[in-house]
Design a protein that fits this description.
about 45% helix; three-stranded parallel β-sheet; about 280 residues; Glycosyl transferase family 1 domain-containing protein; 13 helices; 2 domains; Rossmann fold; six-stranded parallel β-sheet; alpha/beta
Length: about 280
């Protein structure tokens, strides 16, 4: 849809946002031969992308065309809504024993999301740790509901965002475990992991590869395979000390205020260029 609009948008500031989707080989081929897209890009001032992989991809497509400002802009979280609570109090609110270690997952219960991998990791960890798995966000037709219950997980349907806060705070580690490239690559880090970090809860997830790499070791672990998920969770349960400041680290990049300030600077620059 952006292409015909962009082709007609001359002599005015034009910003386009790409939200992934360039991981299908057919889409990549279309991008290279699409004449309309090439005409449209001639009128674009700024292209916003939400993952580093997408930025690198468009850098190759654009080549030496330095006229387009290619910017990485990430989705933010309201750090005033998602904030730390006393862990003991959070466990009281969600009715968990204070001595229990808690693994939290928020999302649908099907394999594309890696819920089966989390369930298997939980089975492994239960043999060594006094741990509980809480899985929030299922729909009635999700295929792994019986598997989760059989494993002893506590499953909860979709709940309002504000009700997630005590669960994030009660958790010792937040986990996602999709290793599907067509999910992880275009999806960015995901909202739920950022919400967990905002509550100062470390994360185990393949999607952490999208977190700024200079700081990723301060907020959690990136499992390299399904079998590695349990090992990464165990590492955090046994030594959470390196992750005590994960909220502060994540806030530098993902607080909505930071994201909005970055966008305002981009638009201010364009308005000065065209109307200043």
């Amino acid at each position: 849809m952006y292409k015909p609009i962009a082709c007609l948008s001359k002599n005015m500031p034009l910003v386009i946002t790409s939200h992934g989707g360039r991981y299908n080989p057919l889409m990549r081929l279309i991008d290279r031969i699409d004449l309309l897209a090439r005409i449209a890009f001639k009128n674009v001032d700024c292209l916003l992308v939400d993952t580093q992989a997408e930025k690198e991809y468009f850098s190759r497509i654009l080549g030496d065309d330095k006229r387009i400002d290619l910017q990485l802009t990430i989705v933010g979280v309201d750090f005033d809504r998602f904030k730390p609570l006393n862990k003991e109090r959070a466990k009281e609110i969600v009715r968990l024993p204070s001595q229990k270690k808690v693994i939290l997952y928020v999302g649908r219960l099907y394999k594309l999301k890696g819920a089966d991998i989390i369930i298997q990791a939980f089975k492994t960890l239960k043999k060594k740790y006094d741990v509980e798995l809480i899985m929030i966000g299922y729909h009635q037709n999700d295929p792994l509901i019986k598997d989760a219950r059989a494993a002893g997980a506590r499953i909860i349907p979709v709940i309002p965002q504000e009700q997630l806060v005590p669960y994030y705070n009660a958790a010792d580690v937040f986990v996602t475990a999709s290793f599907e490239e067509n999910v992880v690559a275009p999806g960015g880090i995901g909202m739920a992991p950022i919400e967990a970090l905002a509550c100062n809860t470390p994360v185990v997830s393949p999607s952490l590869r999208h977190f700024p790499q200079d700081d990723v070791e301060k907020v959690g672990k990136i499992p390299q395979s399904p079998e590695d998920v349990a090992k990464c969770i165990a590492g955090i349960l046994e030594d959470p000390t390196p992750y005590h400041n994960c909220r502060r680290v994540a806030r530098r990049y993902y607080d909505w205020k930071v994201v909005v300030d970055h966008l305002i600077k981009i638009y201010d620059k364009l308005f000065s260029k065209y109307y200043g």
